[in-house]
Design brief:
28 strands; about 50% helix; about 750 residues; six-stranded antiparallel beta sheet; 25 helices; single chain
Length: about 750
């Protein structure tokens, strides 16, 4: 990664970053699109809506900037401008706010996300280990309070301090570093009171140990740190999962393309270097990474990732080929109709980004709570100290009461109210075959009242199966001899039904028509009705026709089987009060048949990725909260835009990354997902209510001097324990057995 400027709050490495003047110039990464210059940067350290607003406003205020948009989940900042503005000035503007900036590199960015997560996990483990050991020593002090000598008690406190000091220095780095970076810019955040509470609790404990006091609070400091790191780790994991959607899509779109020059020279170039009008060669097996118009050649094209259609489409000169399609059989040449940044893949990427931004409503609520919490806690602790000191209490006692106030108001129960529910719910769903991938997924799934299903690979298996019966003797085996020479899905289904066997002689494949060859000395054909001289079928599924010599053509019918659990799943979803519909890119006949079989009244066929997004926007405008279930690249934009989303375990990586949950073992986990999410929402609200009640009771007790720092730590930990125990109720059955 080419570092531009890094001075970041919460930088996982903990190393001193280079200054803006020492950083690499991001100018080589500027792209010229029309009259605009565009640049994509990675921003580190932005964790809330306030960060997003600060960065976007600062960059948008630069001269000539037309648009500046930051995605919190992926850390990607996209800037478009006109004029003489330099890329380095943009990077310096962001770094001067206290955030890390780097040129966009999805692979290196993912590595940094992993390092941050691993760093937090290690810090959490160290804090948990230290807390357990210090608590053992503290229990000895409490248990032997009357009989224990002063020297023994002081020795145990000293040992606790020796354990606590390196723990705070190592595990507390994420909070101390973040607090320092905002304080030196005369700002504040949630980590400031946390850091202050940790430092004061440790400092007071050292002072009490030196003077031979009865109580030290090293256990309080380490326990506080451990619980806070749990929430920070869960947040980091959620962010990395969200980042993977952009990474996977970038990997799909960043392949090389064979460009044909004016002199006929073939040269490999990056997809980003292709411009409209460039001639392109698409070899068999290659995926198109830009939209193109075919000029020469005929071939079967797999558009399943783009349209959801399970069967390949015949493509020839004059036809449009969308980015994401795979050329199956013959070379194709054509002209690019759009640059890589304007292709269908990029459109889907922008839909993913838009969907991620729409999820910020839940984060804004938390950000508002943080903005209120920090000044209130600081003011309360300061006023408590000043009040007792001016009232005549000694400096030591006033500080102890202020420290107790800081510790007892530490938002552990509030911070764990949602994350601990997510952890328990995730375990419950894991055992049921569903896996959560988004931090706020449970809240949004619980609010869903309408389900939109893709068809192919979601409601159906996505694999055609031969259903023809009573075929003339030898027809299946003879047809399979031709089918074994093709990669067409119907040919594969045919060979799977026939089993192992020989290959026909002199087999040739005619794109869009079928196969011909010699079987036992007889000329045979396998393919469309036109190719074999048969009448077109009215079968809703796919068909092939096989003709041997002068015999009449034999029809071979195929069906894409519906999941065995689909009917029961839809019935359970309706029982939960949810509407159900299908929006698919497949043919009308195929979609209508599945809808009729499953009793679904509302369905849409031949829907493009944009059509799916528009349908979801229409449903949202009607006040519905949509749960989108899909598996293809053509579903990725809709999955990101939906109120919540789920993808099967066999779905494309991009679709899984864009979804909030992944399920396996058929559709049965979907009702469990909804029930668990709704119960989790109830438990979250209970936890938030308890956390608020706890602060209303505990804060006055601490302010009035009725709680030592140790009692405050125990009360804080006790509130966290209650929150955790309440979350464990999610493991109870969510549905009565039939």
């Amino acid at each position: 990664m080419n570092t531009v400027a890094v001075d970041t709050a919460g930088c996982p490495s903990g190393l001193a970053p280079p200054s803006a003047s020492e950083a690499a110039d991001p100018s080589p990464f500027v792209r010229r699109v029309g009259k605009q210059d565009r640049l994509s940067l990675t921003v580190r350290g932005a964790k809330c809506g306030a960060c997003l607003s600060r960065i976007e406003s600062a960059v948008a205020a630069l001269p000539g900037v037309d648009n500046a948009r930051l995605n919190l989940s992926t850390g990607r900042l996209d800037i478009a401008w006109t004029g003489d503005l330099s890329a380095q000035r943009i990077a310096r503007t962001v770094s001067d706010l206290g955030y890390g900036v780097a040129s966009l590199d999805t692979r290196a960015g993912d590595t940094e996300h992993k390092k941050e997560e691993q760093s937090l996990l290690l810090a959490m483990g160290v804090a948990g280990f230290a807390t357990a050991n210090i608590m053992l020593l503290s229990v000895s002090v409490w248990g032997g309070h009357d009989e224990m000598g002063e020297a023994t008690r002081q020795g145990l406190h000293a040992v606790s301090g020796v354990i606590a000091l390196p723990t705070l220095l190592f595990s507390g780095r994420p909070f101390f570093r973040s607090a320092w970076n905002v304080l030196k810019r005369r700002r504040t955040n949630m980590d400031v009171p946390i850091s202050l509470a940790l430092i004061l609790a440790f400092s007071v404990s050292v002072a009490e140990t030196i003077r031979g006091g009865e109580h030290a609070y090293f256990d309080a400091a380490c326990m506080l740190l451990f619980f806070l790191l749990i929430g920070r780790f869960l947040d980091a994991r959620v962010r990395r999962r969200a980042y993977s959607a952009a990474r996977d899509l970038a990997a799909l779109a960043s392949r090389t393309v064979t460009r044909i020059s004016a002199t006929g020279t073939h040269e490999p170039v990056r997809a980003e270097d292709i411009r409209p009008g460039d001639r392109i060669l698409l070899a068999p097996g290659e995926r198109a990474v830009v939209d193109m118009l075919i000029e020469h050649g005929e071939s079967e094209v797999d558009e399943s990732l783009v349209t959801g259609e399970s069967l390949p489409r015949f493509s020839a000169a004059g036809m449009q080929l969308m980015a994401g399609s795979i050329n199956l059989s013959q070379p194709l040449t054509g002209r690019a109709t759009a640059a890589s940044a304007d292709s269908l893949l990029s459109d889907i990427g922008r839909m993913l980004e838009a969907g991620e931004q729409k999820r910020g409503a839940y984060r804004r609520i938390a950000d508002k709570a943080v903005s209120l919490y920090v000044p209130i806690v600081h003011s309360t602790a300061l006023l408590t100290f000043l009040g007792w000191w001016l009232a005549g209490l000694g400096l030591r006692e006033s500080i102890l009461i202020a420290v107790s106030t800081l510790i007892i108001t530490c938002p552990c129960a509030l911070a764990l109210a949602a994350p601990v529910v997510q952890v328990v719910a995730a375990g419950r769903l894991f055992r049921g075959g569903a896996y959560l991938k988004s931090g706020d997924a449970l809240e949004r799934i619980a609010a869903c009242d309408h389900v939109v299903f893709d068809k192919t690979g979601t409601l159906t298996l996505g694999t055609p199966r031969l259903v023809s019966i009573n075929l003339p003797a030898g027809t299946l085996q003879d047809a399979a001899q031709l089918a074994r020479a093709s990669r067409h899905p119907l040919s594969r289904a045919l060979t799977a039904a026939a089993g192992p066997g020989p290959l026909a002689a002199n087999v040739k494949e005619r794109p869009g028509l079928g196969l011909e060859g010699t079987v036992n000395g007889i000329a045979c054909r396998l393919g469309s009705a036109e190719w074999t001289g048969a009448r077109a079928s009215i079968h809703n599924g796919a068909t092939l026709f096989f003709v041997r010599g002068a015999e009449l053509p034999v029809e071979l019918r195929f069906e894409d089987d519906i999941h065995a659990s689909a009917s029961a799943t839809i019935a359970r979803l309706r029982k939960l009060g949810m509407g159900v519909e299908i929006v698919s890119g497949d043919r009308s006949e195929a979609v209508a048949e599945v809808a009729r079989t499953l009793g679904i009244d509302h369905w849409t066929a031949a829907a493009s990725p944009q059509d799916k997004v528009r349908r979801l926007e229409q449903l949202q405008s009607e006040g519905k909260h949509v749960l989108m279930v899909g598996d293809g690249l053509n579903d990725a934009g809709a999955l990101a835009l939906a109120h919540a989303s789920a993808a099967p375990g066999g779905a494309l990586d991009v679709s899984q990354s864009a979804s909030d949950a992944v399920y396996s073992g058929g559709l049965a986990p979907l009702p469990l997902l909804v029930r668990t999410a709704r119960k989790a929402r109830t438990v979250m609200l209970q936890n938030f209510g308890f956390a608020a009640a706890y602060n209303l009771v505990a804060v006055p007790i601490a302010v009035l001097g009725h709680a030592t720092p140790l009692v405050a730590a125990i009360a804080m930990s006790g509130s966290s324990l209650i929150v955790c125990l309440n979350a464990l109720r999610l493991n109870l059955p969510t549905e009565k057995p039939a």
